[in-house]
Specification:
- The protein has one domain.
- The protein is globular, with a radius of gyration of 14 Å.
- Helix content is 30%, strand content 27%.
- Helix 1 runs parallel beside helix 2.
- It has 2 helices and 5 strands, in the order H-E-E-E-E-E-H.
- By secondary structure, it is an alpha+beta fold.
- A 5-stranded antiparallel β-sheet has the order 1-2-3-4-5, covered by helices on one side.
């Protein structure tokens, strides 16, 4: 039986605030379901070679590209959900900035 799709609520809140100020950046939210419950993906420039993503579960955020990604987790660290979300969003913004024209 499928469980509820997992996400990271604090990251979603911060990402939505960021996206509200950047409607020019193409993106989509996707719910990916599987036996373990699934995840929520935020994908920028979907379906292109320059695609950037953030995959969210309640315990981990993965940020990356087709070539490389980085995991952000609370486990074993002295950090809360908000700190984790901010750290992952900062990495995501850095990746996005590498894809934007210099005048953005």
């Amino acid at each position: 039986m499928l469980q509820t799709t997992s996400t990271h609520k604090q990251f979603e809140i911060l990402a939505l605030a960021f996206l509200a100020g950047r409607p020019d950046i193409p993106h989509t939210w996707r719910k990916i379901k599987d036996i373990a419950g699934g995840r929520t993906d935020l994908i920028f420039w979907p379906g292109t070679p320059t695609e950037i993503f953030a995959s969210l579960t309640d315990y981990q955020i993965t940020v990356g590209t087709r070539e490389k990604d980085e995991d952000f987790e609370i486990f074993g660290r002295n950090i809360n959900d908000d700190g984790l979300a901010r750290e992952a969003l900062s990495a995501l913004k850095s990746l996005i900035n590498t894809r934007l024209p210099d005048d953005s």
